[in-house]
Amino acid sequence: MYRNNLLTKDHSYYHDTSFLLHQTFSPFEGYYHDETFDLYSLAGKRFENRIKLDWPSVKLDPIYRDQTEYDSGFNILGSGSVLGTLCLFCASHVNILLWNPSTMEFKHIPPSPLDSEPNCHVFHHAFGYDFVNNDYKVIRQGTVVDKTGYIWEIYSLRNNSWRKLDVDMQKSPMCENQLYIDGLSHWLCYGETHNETHLLSFDWSNEVFLTTPIPSDMDDNRFDCNSVWRHLVLLDGSIAFILNYIETGTFHISILGEFGVKKSWIKIFILGPLPYLEYPIGAGKKGDMLFRKKDDDNYGELVWFDLNTQMIEDLGITTERFSCKIVIHKESIIPLEGANI
């Protein structure tokens, strides 16, 4: 009953939304400074209508690049736009932009005090909206050599400035895979040990963190990360944790019921074995999920998987391994407050 209700309900998050396909291409495996990034607007049942979008034309800070200009695109932070706005960043984590692809308006976020620290290393970002103060915000986590603990800082578009975030949060997200919905951002992170996995959430209005443990029976720690991958996706408006057993192509999908409550996770699907599917790229509307098919080389095709019917449909799109994601986008013509174009 829970599964059927999840897959058939019409969640307001998806009203008037479209999909963007973000792809990364590396000329040499493991060499990230020459990456190029392509962004497409997708339309049609099988995404047969794909329109390549132009990135904002902006000169990046040459201090963090060998080139004086770098015009090959950006990474996109998160799984969707926030009130029509995307957060773009480069591999250096220094050049950050807020960009509305509907109006082409953008805001180049200034460097933070942490950038001036010698031997500074920035690991993670998140982007969201503070509905109480009507403010776009960005947070990031970093460390400084010879200083203990993580440093968190937050940027406010209304004030166009960074400040240190006064929180005691020493957990670090596993990766950049961040979800945003309803004023909160979410990542997967380790618990006290690497044998525990937690959901780490950030409330943009109250500027506080919240952790939700994932039960051990839903997070198989018998295998290392080369045997089991963990994914966090937004599935029909709910936060879904996916255990991806690589060798067998089996996927365990659990849904969170209540933040902070460990027992509120509910396992709703065990898919497979599906040995021809490698890993999930993202989720669409009402039970559609995008997967990458296994391939002998570094390239693989994308397919839609319907959780309701268990049917698979090829999309005719080929991508590099770990270099593709679906972004949910809702168009908006509302200008960025305080944008300095």
Explained architecture:
- By secondary structure, the chain is mainly β.
- It has one domain (2-330): Neuraminidase (6 Propeller), CATH 2.120.10.30.
- 2% of the residues lie in helices and 46% in strands.
- It has a 4-stranded antiparallel sheet, with no helix packed on it.
- Residues 63-70 have low confidence and may be disordered.
Brief sketch in words of this structure:
With 341 residues, the protein is an all-beta fold. It has one helix and 24 strands.
* Biggest sheet features: 4 strands, antiparallel
In total, the number of domains comes to: 1
The strand count comes to 24
Question: Radius of gyration in whole Å, from Cα?
Answer: 20 Å
As for the CATH topology, it is: Neuraminidase
Order of helices and strands: HEEEEEEEEEEEEEEEEEEEEEEEE
The CATH class is: Mainly Beta
Spatial separation of the terminal alpha carbons: 50 Å
Q: Shape from CA axes?
A: globular
CATH superfamily: TolB, C-terminal domain
Output mean pLDDT: 84
Helix-and-strand structural type: mainly beta
